[in-house]
Amino acid sequence: MQSSHPASDAITVNNLRKTYRIREGGSWRGKTREIVALDGISFSVPKGQIAGFIGPNGAGKSTAIKILSGILRPTSGEVQVNGLVPWTNRVAHVARIGVVFGQRTQLWWDLSVGEGLALLRDIYGVDPERFARNRARLADALDLGGIMDQSVRQLSLGQRMRAEIAASLIHDPEILILDEPTIGLDAPSKLAVRAFVHELSRDRGTTVLLTTHDMHDIEALAERVIVIGHGRILADSPFEDLRMTTLSERILELDFHGTPPELALPAGAVETSRAPHSLTITFDPRQIPAPALVAHVGHLPGLDDLRISRPSIEEIITRFYADHAA
Amino acid sequence: MTLRPYLTAFGLQWKIGLRYRIAVVAGLAAQMWFGAVTLMAYASVYHAAPDVQAPLSLRQAMTYTWIQQSLFTLLPLGCLPAIGDAAKTGAIVYDLLRPVDMWNWWLSASLARLLGNAIPRAVLLACVAGPLAMLVGLGAWSLAPPADLAAAGLSLISITLGALLSATIVMWWNILTARTLSPLGSYAVGTPLAVLLSGMLLPLPLYPDWIRPFLLAQPFAGITDIPIRIYLGTPIPGGVATGLGLQLFWLTALTLLGRLWMRQTVNRLEVQGA
């Protein structure tokens, strides 16, 4: 559209602000207070990318997702999704996106999954041939064959979420917005959802915006993480970059068959805990590379085993939030 | 613009309305009971004061009551249940995510729900209170046929307008529900207003003289009272044209104002939950 919004961007957001007015005290005469949910955020998502959108509760993620979906108006700022402004072209905009809110259902409780999909076909005006093709493809990829004729009321959470995702894609949207799609799911269901989203992006070039509190979703799917806190973007980078800048340390665990000996450690490594038969050392690989440290401790008497690990993604994000007081 | 999404919404709610067959039978029994009690009350009042020139004859009052009872579920008693549920769970956001005109989408669903509820009950009750009652010798208590052929045709047009008007009022309850995120307010306001002002509780022609013009001019009279008056052939001030005109006026006014309210509501609808 405009030169500043290259055609290859599926989503562009520029200085987006949203404040809520909250009435306090009595419903009649209470004072109103302004809560800033989004304090001027900007980012863009190129076509075909999977972008993870994370942040603590109340950070403004949901507000941003709702604005991008076209169901909430911002206070100010510019947004273009597929070249459209969501809140001024609501009908045209929503026809081209698919949305899954993990905590709500878009299918009809009283109907079967198949009937619900047929209703969505009529709502979105999907022609019968394309509908049949999409339905077969989604049923296959999301393993819906056995539940097509079951009413939504009877589905397990995992089955329902797979049906929800199918429902959001029956009209071939160019952008899929997933708001906590794995919440409450068991491990196999989570893996199935992740695998499907990954294939969708790879095979069909669908742009995916994903919010989640499950960092494994992010690790498995997102090429890029946008961290939001206090209504601002705190970080926007591939996850590995976030790891390097936030918590690059490694952990070396040593097991002994006797009492661990006293150690003289090189710079960059510190003993962080000691147990009757083991030691934990935390080190910064930029100061002391792992091989050098292993060589240093490898000849210790009574050493049985050693393991090197990295902090989990949860620890990294927790540290990141703490560093930014988010 | 295609009609398909709206026909789909209509079809879905129509099916849901028809699904509750036991409710139809239970409702029928309740409405027969209330109808019978009301009829006995009228009979004793009319016989106690035979000299008073009532605006409706006893037979007309009975017919009025039967039709009101049979159309009870056509009244706008509250919001569309599906919208009430969606407001409570937050699933109402998905309605905003559909590429449809929200007003027409909800209106089709609301109309279908009213008709799906009302038509089976009305047909059943009309059969029982009409031909069946006459066959078993209760002709004096039965539902009388329309005044004449013209009255039959015009009342059919009028009840169609009445159904549309009722669905339009339900839209106002739907918007109220979307704003307050609870269906309770719509029922608290809608049920007493609809029961009282439609003539369900007491036929509007039987109210005192001074208040009758106001009762005729308010929108709820257009749902069942005006169609019944046309059916009975009782005079409407200004004639049948005024009756149909009032219905059209309210249908237009409530649609235009309601659409404005809807637009404003959609613009500032904040979604429940995080």
Question: How would you characterize this protein structure?
Answer:
Chain B: It holds the Pfam family ABC2_membrane_6. The complex is a heterodimer of chains A (326) and B (274). Chain A is an alpha/beta fold and 326 residues long. Chain A has ten helices and 13 strands. In chain A, the strands form three sheets. Chain A has a six-stranded mixed sheet, with helices on both faces. Chain A has a four-stranded antiparallel sheet with strand order 11-12-10-13, with no helix packed on it. In chain A, a hairpin with a 2-residue loop joins strand 11 and strand 12. Chain A is globular and about 75 Å long. The N terminus of chain A is likely disordered. Chain B has 274 residues and is mostly helical. Chain B contains eleven helices and no strands. In chain B, helix 2 runs antiparallel to helix 3 and helix 3 crosses helix 6. Chain B is globular and about 60 Å long. Classes of the chains: A alpha/beta (326), B mainly alpha (274). Chains A and B meet through helix 1, helix 2, strand 5 and helix 3 of A and helix 1 and helix 5 of B.
Summarize the structure in short:
Chain A: Residues 11-255 form the ABC transporter domain. Chain A: It comes from Gluconobacter cerevisiae. The complex is a heterodimer of chains A (326) and B (274). With 326 residues, chain A is an alpha/beta fold.
List keywords for this structure.
heterodimer, A: 326 residues, alpha/beta, Rossmann fold, Alpha-Beta Plaits, B: mainly alpha, globular
